[in-house]
Amino acid sequence: MGAGHGHRLFFHGHSVVHRAPAHLKVLALVGFMLVVVALPRQAYVAHGAAALVLLAVIAVSRVPLRYLAPRMVIEVPFAVFAVLMPFVSHGPRTEVLGVAVSEPGLVAGAALLMKGTIGVLASLTFAATTEADDLLRGLQRLRVPDLLVQIMGFMIRYLDVVTGEMRRMVVAMRSRGCEPRSPRHWPVLARSLGALFIRSYERGERVHHAMLSRGYTGRLP
Amino acid sequence: MIPVLDVRGLAFAYPDGHQALYGVDLHVHAGERVALLGPNGAGKTTLVLHLNGILSGGAGSVTVSGLPVVTDNLAEVRRRVGIVFQDPDDQLFLGTVRQDVAFGPANLGIKGAALERRVMHALDQVGMADFVDRPPHHLSFGQRRRVAVATVLAMEPEILVLDEPSSNLDPTSRRELADILRGLDVTVLMVTHDLPYALELCPRSVVLSDGVVVADRSTYDVLTDEELMAAHRLELPWGFDPRSIGSLPA
Ligand SMILES: Nc1ncnc2c1ncn2[C@@H]1O[C@H](COP(=O)(O)OP(=O)(O)OP(=O)(O)O)[C@@H](O)[C@H]1O
Ligand SMILES: [Mg+2]
Q: How far apart are CA B147 and CA B91, in angstroms?
């Protein structure tokens, strides 16, 4: 189950990384993340080594950094937070470029930025080289409870349907002179999100009926 | 002869208290193709959901080839009654056409080569065999409708129930689906607002209105009975005259 060919973060390719069994990739990703999170904050060399390992994997996968970089914007809120930390934290002060900043804040901010960047890049690489379908089968092989895997599969399958429905609702709102971007119309937007939720819920019910009609008993074959 | 579908005195109210069916009687015999007509809100979909026990709990009974639709028989009933829902997006929920068509028979315990044969046979019947490895949500609407029919055919049902099969299809897809349905060797109950389609495909029509059956006759008789048609909000498309086409042999 799943979205089949090419979800949004997928980068088509045939490298070793693409072909590696998904459950191994999941294990590798989780293991790698645990190590990176567990590294002492000031172990800069170790962080550098982890980053190098990651870059090597990316090189082997032939996913261009140009493809991954723009997708890293998801990290921006955390990066902003990390950059603010030296200014808002307490503790002994040091000077950086003539500005007095908190030393523990600086260390913590730098650590957050390093760990965060490595983590996001590793996840993106994983996503870019793994089909949704394979991921789900990999999770199944890792004995993730069936129900969870099914729920993830349905989420992937119906993401397009629900976002499509939302797009159509927004178009219909715009056509009737309501601009969802303007705060004046936010109450309407909130109500339409409620409607979207109910629609999705009812669709879920109809899908369930269709499954029962074909003999579904709680386990995907 | 035992009817494939035998509905007696079926009444049903939704949990919110809205009474949708008030004592419906309906019989469909093997090999028949029957149209279920009626205005919006008549209770057609509600009736369809009773045929394989998705909805239940009201008065009356439903029997499928002699087997009562009760909790203990649901698995067998759902094998015998194949329902194609109105929105193919509700019916196609897996990653590829193959997985979706295999879903029903796999639930019946069919595996391996036999499963593959069923899948390919069902897809052949609707002319979609070339799309077996495509994700369903990348297909056109008409193609999805055909795959939805295949998902049910793969269970080799005794009766095929279609909820508005021609809705949202372009004229060519609509005709192609008619050709497919006519070519199938299976009993059909078809819910539709498309009266010419009913006349073309179904010798017999049942009219449901406000939760009761108000007519059960040849489709030609129904469509040419102006009083009945007007009383139950049924209208022929402009310029369409059943008299110039005539009746299907019953
Ligand atoms: N989930 C529900 N809860 C409460 N009432 C419902 C529900 N679904 C349908 N109804 C009501 O039951 C009645 C019959 O609905 P049903 O969907 O069976 O009609 P229909 O004949 O299929 O109509 P259409 O041609 O529009 O599809 C309607 O009055 C409808 O408002
Ligand atoms: Mg309906």
A: 9
Do the chains contact at B87 and A206, CB–CB below 8 Å?
yes
Report the share of chain A in percent with pLDDT over 90: 34
Question: Token digits for A205?
Answer: 């019910």
Residue type for A219, please? R
> Contact, B160 vs B186, CB < 8 A?
yes
**Both structure tokens of A178:** 């309501």
Query: Rounded to whole angstroms, how far apart are CA atoms A118 and A29?
Result: 11
Q: Does B78 touch chain A (CB under 8 A)?
A: yes
Q: Which amino acid is at A191?
A: R
Q: Is the pLDDT of residue A2 over 70?
A: no
* Pairwise CB contact (< 8 Å): B106 & A221: yes
Contact between chains at B82 and A216 (C-beta distance less than 8 A)? no
C-alpha of residue B208 to centroid of ligand 1, in Å = 12
Task: Note every long-range contact of B37-40, with CB atoms under 8 Å and residues 24 or more positions apart, other chains counting.
Answer: B37/B192, B37/B193, B37/B195, B37/B198, B37/B205, B37/B206, B37/B207, B37/B208, B37/B222, B37/B234, B38/B207, B38/B208, B38/B209, B38/B232, B38/B234, B39/B209, B39/B232, B39/B233, B39/B234, B40/B193, B40/B233
Amino acid identity of A218?
Answer: G
Q: What is the mean pLDDT of chain B?
A: 93
B157 vs A: CB within 8 A: no
Enter the ipTM.
Answer: 0.79
Q: Is the per-residue pLDDT at B126 higher than 70?
A: yes
Residue B91 CA to residue B50 CA, distance in Å, equals 17
- CATH topology for B5-94+158-244 is Rossmann fold (3.40.50)
Q: Do the Cβ atoms of A34 and A119 come closer than 8 Å? A: no
- CA of B196, closest CA in chain A: separation in Å? 28
| Helix, strand, coil percentages, rounded to 5, for chain A | 75, 5, 25
Residue A68 and residue A62 in contact, taking contact as beta carbons nearer than 8 Å: no
Q: Does the CB atom of residue B20 touch ligand 1 within 6 A?
A: yes
Q: Strand B204-209 and strand B187-191: pairing? A: unpaired
For A80, what's the count of Cα atoms within 13 Å in the CB-facing half-sphere? 4
Quote the tokens at residue B232: 């139950």
B52 chain-A contacts, CB cut-off 8 A: 212-213
Atom of ligand 1 nearest to the CA of B16: 4
Identity of residue B22: Y
